[in-house]
Structure formats: structure tokens, C-alpha cells
Task: inverse folding
């Protein structure tokens, strides 16, 4: 994997001048000139409401309202399938315009929009970006959006999303849990249902399989113990696992009842996975960080602890060959 965003900043610092045609405040990953295999790229790793967080007066947000960090984008993965020359997006986050452009530039394609968008569930950070496909924005023509049954019903029967369906801005493509969808001869996607706060839709993660390697993407789940499956079994089958790391521990959120927004704390996940071989722990790339999560802070003790214990963080611009 290549930490493309870091390389971009290194180039900027060495040359002391902005790279032409790339805004300094929006450092998209540079183009991958030639991809031999399908490749995933991290296009965001922050929880639904972003960072800085609305109405936040804590130290973690204060400076970011004045000097935003362009790398703090809401969780999404991009996928490039080089043989047919197509891209896909996992999640339609509120940062969708920048993420779609970054994915297009990375793939080196002329097509602005991805060939398909996969949604995990109906919480704002995971589908609200669909609004940019409507008549007020790009007025897309039948952009393919892959959804589970309840998610499809939610978008079809509730405005303003129903307008996207009625005006053919999006074309909903049904998914079935545990049923594999072949995107091309070398690329397959399988939705896996997980327990979460399913007010408006079910929640899924995805298995993404290329010709050589496989990835697991579960940005949201209530607790590993609530799942009727063992995440360790999936870890054994994949090469990369992008897992829910919304909160580092129970102490970080002192303004809300954290029991009402359950997620596996990073501290809990590390304890659960502590006995796994180093090779298994190294597959895990935590993401979906709440604005209070100290894993967003470059020199934090929490980041050091995660890496010391053999785990990884899903950094913006990191790529993973499949």
C-alpha cells in the first residue's frame, strides 16, 4: 500500500510551491498511472458528522473551524477495476463531491461518476451524499446505487431521495445478504448483514474480492459480541479488514449517553484481537473515527498504542491492491 497523501505533502514541502492545478486546500491523491489489479483507496476515515463536528466547542474541533484539515473526510472507500476501466464507491458520504473527484483522478479516467455506489445503511454519513446526484447538483443519469431491500424501500418512499429515483438520477440495484455480485471477471462484492441501529434500513458490511486478495469493510456495527458470526472467521479469509473504530473508549464522549450509540471501542477490539497472530492483527485498519477520537491526532498516545499492538489506521489516500 502507498500513502499517497503523505507523498503529496512531502513533494509540496520540498518544492515550496503548490503543484499546478491541484488546490493546496484539497490534496487529492495523485493519479495511479497503471494499475495491474483492482485497487482500493481510502477516501475518508471520519465518522458521519465529520471533523470538526457541528456545535463542538472542544479542543478537538476549535482550531479546525478556522483551519480545516482537508484529509478529514467522512468514511468512504474507492475501488478501481482497471481492466474494464471502471470505478466504484463504497458509501455516499457528505464529502462525496471531493471523494468522487479524487477517485476519478486516481483512476485516470474521463468518467466523472463511478460505475456504482454501494451503501451500507441509512445513517447520514453513509448515504446523504446521494443528494449531489440530484437536479440541484450534477443531475446524474441513472447512477447505479447498490442497496439492500430496506435501504431500497427507504430511498424509494421518502423524500427527497424518492425524487432521485423518480427522476432517474439514480437507478437502485438490489443486493441480497451473503449473495455475491460479480462486477467483472476479476472483481466480486458480497454484502454481509451486521447488527446496528437499524431505524430506517438494515446494515451491512462488504467482502470485496479481487483476483489475488480480499478485503472486509465494516464501518459500523453495534458490538462484535452482538453479531451471530465471529469477525475472526472473516479475518482469516481476507487480507485487509477496515473495521469500526468510532470511539477509542467509553471515556471520550462525556456529553451524550454512549450506551445509546453503541460501537466496539478500539480498546475493546484490541483486547479481543490481542491473542491473534501478528499477521492477523496487521490486517486490521481501523476507521470511522468520531471527532473526539484521539486516533485522529497524529502524535497521540492512542495512535502509538494501536500501532505498538500491531494494528493499523486507515489513512486518507492509502491504497490496497486486490
Result:
Amino acid at each position: 500500500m502507498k500513502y499517497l497523501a503523505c507523498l503529496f505533502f512531502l513533494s509540496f514541502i520540498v518544492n515550496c510551491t503548490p503543484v499546478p492545478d491541484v488546490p493546496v486546500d484539497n490534496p487529492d491523491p495523485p493519479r495511479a498511472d497503471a494499475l495491474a489489479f483492482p485497487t482500493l483507496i481510502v477516501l475518508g476515515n471520519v465518522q458521519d458528522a465529520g471533523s470538526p463536528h457541528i456545535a463542538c466547542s472542544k479542543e478537538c474541533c476549535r482550531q479546525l473551524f478556522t483551519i480545516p484539515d482537508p484529509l478529514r473526510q467522512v468514511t468512504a472507500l474507492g475501488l478501481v477495476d482497471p481492466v474494464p476501466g471502471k470505478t466504484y464507491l463504497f458509501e455516499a458520504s457528505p464529502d462525496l463531491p471531493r471523494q468522487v473527484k479524487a477517485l476519478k483522478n486516481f483512476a485516470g479516467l474521463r468518467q466523472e461518476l463511478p460505475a456504482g455506489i454501494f451503501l451500507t445503511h441509512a445513517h447520514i454519513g453513509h448515504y446523504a451524499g446521494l443528494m449531489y446526484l440530484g437536479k440541484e447538483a450534477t443531475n446524474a443519469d441513472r447512477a447505479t446505487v447498490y442497496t439492500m431491500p430496506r435501504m431500497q424501500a427507504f430511498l424509494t418512499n421518502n423524500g427527497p431521495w424518492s425524487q432521485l429515483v423518480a427522476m432517474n438520477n439514480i437507478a437502485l440495484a438490489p443486493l441480497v445478504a451473503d449473495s455475491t455480485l460479480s462486477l467483472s471477471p476479476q472483481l466480486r462484492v458480497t454484502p454481509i448483514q451486521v447488527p446496528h441501529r437499524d431505524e430506517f434500513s438494515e446494515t451491512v458490511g462488504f467482502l470485496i474480492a479481487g483476483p489475488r486478495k480480499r478485503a472486509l469493510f465494516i464501518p459500523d456495527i453495534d458490538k462484535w459480541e452482538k453479531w451471530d458470526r465471529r469477525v475472526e472467521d472473516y479475518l482469516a479469509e481476507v487480507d485487509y479488514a477496515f473495521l469500526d473504530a468510532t470511539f477509542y473508549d467509553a471515556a471520550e464522549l462525556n456529553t451524550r449517553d454512549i450506551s445509546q450509540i453503541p460501537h466496539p471501542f478500539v480498546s475493546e477490539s484490541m483486547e479481543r484481537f490481542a491473542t491473534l497472530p501478528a499477521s492477523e492483527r496487521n490486517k486490521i485498519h481501523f476507521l470511522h473515527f468520531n471527532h473526539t477520537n484521539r486516533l485522529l491526532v497524529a502524535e497521540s498516545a492512542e495512535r502509538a498504542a494501536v500501532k505498538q499492538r500491531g494494528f493499523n489506521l486507515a489513512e486518507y489516500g492509502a491504497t490496497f491492491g486486490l
